[in-house]
Specification:
Number of strands: 7
Largest sheet: 5 strands, antiparallel
Distance between the termini: 37 Å
Strand order of the largest sheet: 1-2-3-4-5
Order of helices and strands: HEEEEEHEEH
Bound molecules: zinc ion
Length: 125
């Protein structure tokens, strides 16, 4: 199985060339191609999902703390580690990022003005 998207092909070959372990490969209704990778790095356990639909694609990355990171435009460990300090809502670099919702990594500013959008009464149910 190969991805058709050049971006996903690049991610797939970068992950396969490194320490990534393919966790899951599935083809399901509405989802043309999907691969899930787990990567054990000295910094901890990373998870990457590559998804390709008929007309769209997505790369989803979770850092060693289990929170989402903004996938870098070009896959590299330097860029992945740099993404750990980016707010997943506004994209700004910040040193005080905290969880928002299930896996958001938000800066103080975004938490102060938008946390109610993802953490409302009963949001975990
Ligand atoms: Zn922010």
């Amino acid at each position: 199985m190969d991805f058709r998207s050049k971006k996903l092909l690049k991610w797939d070959s970068w992950l396969r060339a490194g320490r990534a372990k393919m966790k899951e490969e599935t083809v399901v209704d509405g989802l043309v191609r999907r691969r899930c990778y787990e990567i054990q790095e000295p910094s901890g356990h990373w998870v990457v999902h590559l998804n390709e639909w008929e007309k769209s694609e997505s790369v989803n990355v979770w850092g060693p703390d289990g929170l989402a990171v903004i996938p870098p435009a070009e896959p590299s460990w330097e860029a992945m580690r740099a993404s750990l300090s980016l707010c997943t809502r506004c994209g700004k670099a910040a040193s005080d990022l905290k969880r928002a919702g299930f896996a958001g990594r938000w800066c103080q500013e975004c938490r102060a003005s938008h946390l109610h959008e993802v953490e409302y009464p009963g949001w975990t149910e």
